[in-house]
């Protein structure tokens, strides 16, 4: 307990490396070991040594990650899952019962949309879509049984910005919970709980892991009772992060701050190059002063992150051609790794939104700007644009 109190005075970079990571008591190992174990010896029936009995319920490597996640977001409880969508599913089934309603953003990760539209809806959960960058548009969608307002900021793939503090006020008045998917920003760039959100969602596959070598998800909450309910459902449904995956995410988090600084710096340069390029008709990056969410982003983010989207003159085929010509930017889905990626959302990550209110422009290209040399990245984009 006293150790936890001390942590509150530590800065993000220190917590990232130390929170939840006290040297292993048995060996002194400086790094939390991978406890690749399913069950634990009991000292007499029910006599648990470290509180561990079975690794779906709790595992020491996962616990270290979960404590770390809670500390980084200034939360009371962190929970680690097998994927971002597993975390979202656990949250949905904890917060909602049939007939309940959720407001979801008109620009969201395709899999989040699919989870609501194709899965949760079959269980009687109602949803409607709003432009969450406009708090009044969100208020207009509220219903008597609205239990949650769901936002992604910055959003995927159009980098829209939602005002977390304003939406928290609307949610509070409506008796609903504000859920923020903070995957694009990471807790280093943005702290949703401090801005009034109730739940923070992560795909740790992305910036938290940071090396394109693990799939994982997380929830962080500022309320003990909700944390308990989520932990109950996490164990009851079972989509937990395995020990090796938890360890990889922890390893990634240790360098999160310096990686995000570089991602943001490189993405700023990329956005400037694209803005000046004759073959680019529009650039989406919240760091650009002309971005409609720039002011809100500047207020609630430390810097603007590593994701940049843009539209290519000449339409869909021209956008696909840019993706095909890029060399250093690897053509692939996902984001948030040290290596730069390029993709065509309409045909790849967001194909599931076709024909819906979340459909993305056909001439859109999305970049996950990595931490390579900025000169090499700019040269590759210049040749790919032709
Ligand atoms: C990738 C992603 C998810 C889903 O996470 P998985 O780890 O792929 O299940 C959710 N939200 C956002 C913003 C994402 O980028």
Describe the structure.
The protein has 386 residues and is α/β, with parallel strands linked by helices. The chain has 2 domains: 12-253, Type I PLP-dependent aspartate aminotransferase-like (Major domain) (Aspartate Aminotransferase, domain 2, 3-Layer(aba) Sandwich); 257-385, Aspartate Aminotransferase, domain 1, CATH 3.90.1150.10. It has 14 helices and 12 strands. Strands 1-7-6-5-4-2-3 form a 7-stranded mixed beta sheet. Helix 7 links the parallel strand 4 and strand 5 (177-181). Helix 3 runs parallel beside helix 10. Mean pLDDT is 95; it is low at 1-5. Pyridoxal-5'-phosphate binds at residues 83-85, 109, 111-112, 152, 156, 181, 183-184, 203, 205-206, 215, 217.
Spatial strand arrangement across the major sheet = 1-7-6-5-4-2-3
SSE run = HHHEHEHEHEHEHEEHHHEHEHEEEH
* Total of domains: 2
- Radius of gyration using CA atoms only: 21 Å
The name CATH uses for the topology of the largest domain is Aspartate Aminotransferase, domain 2
Helical content stands at: 25-40%
Give the averaged pLDDT, no decimals.
95
Report the principal-axis shape. Answer: globular
CATH architectural category of the largest domain: 3-Layer(aba) Sandwich
- Beta content comes to 15-25%
The number of helices is 14
């Amino acid at each position: 307990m006293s150790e936890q109190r001390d942590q509150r005075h530590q800065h993000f970079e220190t917590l990232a490396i130390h929170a939840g990571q006290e040297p292993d008591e048995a060996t002194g190992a400086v790094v939390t070991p991978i406890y690749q174990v399913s069950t634990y010896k009991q000292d007499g029936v029910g006599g648990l040594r470290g509180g561990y009995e079975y690794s779906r319920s709790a595992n020491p490597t996962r616990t270290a990650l979960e404590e770390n996640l809670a500390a980084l977001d200034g939360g009371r409880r962190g929970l680690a899952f097998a994927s971002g969508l597993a975390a979202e599913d656990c949250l949905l089934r904890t917060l909602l019962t049939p007939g309940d309603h959720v407001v979801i953003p008109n620009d969201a990760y395709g899999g989040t949309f699919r989870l609501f539209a194709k899965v949760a809806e079959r269980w009687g959960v109602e949803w409607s879509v709003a432009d969450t960058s406009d708090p009044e548009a969100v208020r207009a969608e509220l219903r008597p049984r609205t239990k949650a307002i769901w936002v992604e900021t910055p959003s995927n793939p159009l980098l829209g910005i939602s005002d977390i503090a304003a939406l928290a006020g609307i949610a509070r008045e409506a008796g609903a919970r504000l859920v923020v998917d903070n995957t694009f920003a990471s807790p280093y760039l943005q702290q949703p709980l401090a801005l009034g959100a109730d739940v923070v969602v992560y795909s740790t596959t992305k910036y938290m892991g940071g090396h394109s070598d693990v799939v994982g998800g997380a929830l962080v909450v500022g309320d003990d009772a909700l944390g308990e309910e989520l932990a109950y459902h996490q164990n009851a449904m079972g989509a937990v992060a395995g020990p090796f995956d938890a360890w990889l995410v922890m390893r990634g988090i240790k360098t999160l701050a310096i990686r995000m600084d570089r991602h943001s710096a490189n993405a700023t340069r990329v956005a400037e190059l694209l803005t000046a390029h004759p073959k680019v008709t529009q650039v989406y990056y919240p760091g650009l002063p002309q971005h409609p969410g720039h002011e809100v982003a500047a207020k609630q983010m430390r810097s603007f992150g590593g994701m940049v989207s843009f539209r290519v003159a000449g339409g869909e085929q021209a956008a696909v051609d840019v993706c095909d010509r890029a060399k250093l930017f690897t053509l692939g889905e996902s984001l948030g790794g040290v290596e730069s990626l390029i993709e065509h959302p309409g045909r790849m990550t967001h194909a599931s939104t076709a024909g819906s209110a979340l459909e993305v422009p056909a001439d859109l290209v999305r970049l996950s700007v990595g931490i390579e040399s900025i000169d090499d990245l700019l040269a590759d984009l210049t040749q790919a644009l032709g």
